[in-house]
Structure prediction request, 138 residues.
Amino acid sequence: MSYDSNNIFAKILRGEIPCIKLFEDAHTLAFMDIMPQTDGHALVIPKEPATTLFELSDEAAQACMATVRKIGNAQKKGLGAEGVVLMQLNGPAAGQTVPHFHIHVIPGSIADLRKPHATVMADQGHLKAFADKIIAAL
Prediction:
Protein backbone atom coordinates (compact mmCIF):
# COMPACT_ATOMS: atom_id res chain seq x y z
CA MET A 1 0.00 0.00 0.00
CA SER A 2 1.50 3.36 -0.97
CA TYR A 3 1.43 6.19 1.55
CA ASP A 4 -0.87 9.15 0.77
CA SER A 5 0.91 12.27 2.02
CA ASN A 6 -2.36 14.23 1.78
CA ASN A 7 -4.22 12.18 4.41
CA ILE A 8 -5.66 14.14 7.34
CA PHE A 9 -3.03 12.95 9.84
CA ALA A 10 -0.17 13.97 7.52
CA LYS A 11 -1.82 17.39 7.25
CA ILE A 12 -2.08 17.59 11.05
CA LEU A 13 1.63 16.72 11.35
CA ARG A 14 2.48 19.51 8.88
CA GLY A 15 0.31 21.99 10.83
CA GLU A 16 -2.15 22.42 7.95
CA ILE A 17 -5.09 21.18 10.03
CA PRO A 18 -5.48 21.91 13.76
CA CYS A 19 -5.84 19.28 16.44
CA ILE A 20 -6.29 19.23 20.20
CA LYS A 21 -2.77 18.15 21.09
CA LEU A 22 -2.09 16.09 24.19
CA PHE A 23 1.59 15.24 23.77
CA GLU A 24 4.32 15.51 21.18
CA ASP A 25 7.91 14.35 21.01
CA ALA A 26 10.44 13.88 18.19
CA HIS A 27 8.75 10.70 16.93
CA THR A 28 5.04 10.85 17.84
CA LEU A 29 1.98 13.04 18.28
CA ALA A 30 -0.99 12.32 20.55
CA PHE A 31 -4.25 14.22 20.15
CA MET A 32 -7.97 13.99 20.79
CA ASP A 33 -10.08 11.97 18.35
CA ILE A 34 -12.66 14.36 16.85
CA MET A 35 -15.11 11.48 16.47
CA PRO A 36 -14.66 9.81 19.87
CA GLN A 37 -16.22 6.53 20.87
CA THR A 38 -15.97 7.54 24.55
CA ASP A 39 -15.06 10.73 26.40
CA GLY A 40 -11.29 11.14 26.42
CA HIS A 41 -10.69 9.03 23.26
CA ALA A 42 -7.20 9.87 21.97
CA LEU A 43 -5.05 8.94 18.99
CA VAL A 44 -1.31 8.33 18.85
CA ILE A 45 0.43 8.63 15.49
CA PRO A 46 4.04 8.35 14.37
CA LYS A 47 5.69 11.21 12.54
CA GLU A 48 7.08 8.59 10.17
CA PRO A 49 4.89 8.10 7.08
CA ALA A 50 3.37 4.61 7.19
CA THR A 51 -0.12 3.42 6.31
CA THR A 52 -0.26 0.30 8.49
CA LEU A 53 1.73 -1.43 11.20
CA PHE A 54 3.38 -3.53 8.52
CA GLU A 55 5.05 -0.52 6.86
CA LEU A 56 6.08 1.09 10.16
CA SER A 57 9.72 0.84 11.27
CA ASP A 58 10.53 -0.95 14.51
CA GLU A 59 11.81 2.34 15.96
CA ALA A 60 8.59 4.20 15.15
CA ALA A 61 6.48 1.34 16.52
CA GLN A 62 8.45 1.42 19.77
CA ALA A 63 8.06 5.22 20.02
CA CYS A 64 4.30 4.91 19.45
CA MET A 65 3.93 2.34 22.21
CA ALA A 66 5.88 4.54 24.64
CA THR A 67 3.50 7.43 23.87
CA VAL A 68 0.46 5.14 24.14
CA ARG A 69 1.61 4.20 27.65
CA LYS A 70 1.98 7.88 28.61
CA ILE A 71 -1.47 8.77 27.29
CA GLY A 72 -3.16 5.69 28.77
CA ASN A 73 -1.65 6.35 32.18
CA ALA A 74 -2.74 10.01 31.96
CA GLN A 75 -6.29 8.93 31.04
CA LYS A 76 -6.37 6.62 34.05
CA LYS A 77 -5.08 9.34 36.38
CA GLY A 78 -6.79 12.40 34.89
CA LEU A 79 -10.14 10.87 33.97
CA GLY A 80 -10.35 8.16 36.60
CA ALA A 81 -10.50 5.49 33.91
CA GLU A 82 -10.25 2.02 35.40
CA GLY A 83 -9.35 0.52 32.03
CA VAL A 84 -8.00 1.59 28.66
CA VAL A 85 -8.88 0.00 25.33
CA LEU A 86 -6.24 0.05 22.59
CA MET A 87 -7.47 -0.34 19.03
CA GLN A 88 -5.36 -0.41 15.90
CA LEU A 89 -6.74 -1.21 12.44
CA ASN A 90 -4.68 -2.15 9.38
CA GLY A 91 -6.18 -1.42 5.98
CA PRO A 92 -9.68 -0.53 4.79
CA ALA A 93 -10.83 -4.15 5.05
CA ALA A 94 -10.12 -3.97 8.79
CA GLY A 95 -12.02 -0.68 9.14
CA GLN A 96 -9.07 1.74 8.96
CA THR A 97 -10.49 5.10 7.82
CA VAL A 98 -7.32 7.24 7.76
CA PRO A 99 -4.38 5.82 5.78
CA HIS A 100 -1.74 6.76 8.37
CA PHE A 101 -0.81 4.30 11.12
CA HIS A 102 -2.54 5.23 14.38
CA ILE A 103 -3.48 3.73 17.70
CA HIS A 104 -6.76 4.54 19.41
CA VAL A 105 -6.30 5.00 23.18
CA ILE A 106 -9.79 4.81 24.61
CA PRO A 107 -10.50 5.19 28.34
CA GLY A 108 -13.04 2.74 29.72
CA SER A 109 -14.15 -0.73 28.75
CA ILE A 110 -14.80 -2.46 25.45
CA ALA A 111 -18.44 -2.46 26.58
CA ASP A 112 -18.36 1.38 26.46
CA LEU A 113 -17.70 1.39 22.71
CA ARG A 114 -21.32 1.73 21.66
CA LYS A 115 -20.76 4.48 19.11
CA PRO A 116 -19.55 3.20 15.73
CA HIS A 117 -15.96 4.08 14.80
CA ALA A 118 -15.48 7.45 13.04
CA THR A 119 -19.11 8.48 12.69
CA VAL A 120 -20.13 11.28 15.10
CA MET A 121 -18.20 14.57 15.29
CA ALA A 122 -17.78 15.84 18.85
CA ASP A 123 -18.04 19.43 20.06
CA GLN A 124 -14.55 20.97 20.22
CA GLY A 125 -15.17 22.52 23.65
CA HIS A 126 -16.23 19.13 25.01
CA LEU A 127 -13.04 17.55 23.62
CA LYS A 128 -10.88 20.35 25.02
CA ALA A 129 -12.29 19.85 28.54
CA PHE A 130 -11.22 16.19 28.50
CA ALA A 131 -7.89 17.07 26.87
CA ASP A 132 -7.14 19.51 29.70
CA LYS A 133 -7.65 16.73 32.28
CA ILE A 134 -5.38 14.33 30.37
CA ILE A 135 -2.68 16.98 29.86
CA ALA A 136 -2.78 17.89 33.55
CA ALA A 137 -2.20 14.23 34.40
CA LEU A 138 0.84 14.01 32.11
Observations:
- The chain has one domain: 8-137.
- Strands lie at 21-24, 28-32, 42-46, 84-87, 103-107.
- The chain has a mean pLDDT of 95.
- The domain at 8-137 is CATH 3.30.428.10 (HIT family, subunit A).
